[in-house]
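U., I forgot to send this yesterday:
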Amino acid sequence: MPSMSFTHKMKMLSNFILERKFREIYNMFWVYPLWWNRKSSSFLLNKLFPKLGIDLFLPFLEIEPTTVCNFRCRCCEHTYWKEPSKNMTFEQFRKIMDDFGRPKWLGLTGIGSSYLNPDYHKMMAYAKSRGTIIEVFDHFSHFKNDEQIKELIEVGPDFQFLSVYGASKKSFESICVGSDYDKLIKNLKTFVQLKKQMKKRFPIINFHYIVTSKSKDEILDFIDMVHSLDTEVGEILVTPLLHGYKEAKKYEVKIDQEYVRKINERAAQYKIPITVNMSAKQDAEGLSCKPPIRNCKEYIMPFIFVTGHVTPCCGQNEANAREWQKNLALGNVFEKPFKEIWYSDEYKQMRKLIRENKVPKQCTLCPAYELGECKKLNH
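Result:
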């Protein structure tokens, strides 16, 4: 979910109005109060609503369309899995959506390369036909041709994030083994050009910069490149590795306040909204350690695996603990409708534990909240 500036939220609203996307306008006013910031969201979800006897049915959903990928990124859990790769079928996707109802916001990205699922655009189009606000992540490496880029623009997901591991061919391809950085940049520029030619307001392009030991020092170059595109940018999301599991440990780096200051200054110079994920988030709120788990709001955005398993959120993905996640799944959407799973005794108990500042077993790898004694952040 984008943590865009207020100015950009207003720009997005005006785009919805001009496009006469009234369902999205309604969804936007529903979505952002529950995701405006951690404090207000957790107050509503974990204090006010329970006191009023309201067990809110969630407005957010994330669905994994595929786990097929032909890259072997050195810091991605997919490289080390034993799970067979597979695509979700359109019929399975439609069943999840129909059983859920009308999700107001949908993340349609998983641990795989989305364009290796031939039904990917069909899934997006179905969700957009229901007025759902859609956010997707991709590396722009698997477009078949420019026509597929045009099709993406026509389908019009609201937020299109481009994920990158660096700002140079050397650093990117050294992490993302099997990729072609030049092709990625070519496709990005084609996307920007075609969107202007087609006079489309959506998708709004965003960027996800993954900070590793190889890419950390290239962040300012990356911001310069984004500025050079001369296009509207929703935000740049900067994320260090959230889980330093054994195989990815040597690529894990810490982000300190000086690093954050430099990138904020460069982004401000170009008036590009930027968010530094997780490790710097606590500094922005004046905290000396992670927020307590009773402040969690992410549990209203469950993540559904391509196999149908329901997990509390995407925060424990990329920990190379896929089988553990499936073993502790709260249900399977191919076996029963999501609403039945959400209101099951086990799911209710999970929400109750979070509100009592206790850690559910499904959340014991959470990178965002304090799970025990407060550990002060190192800078």
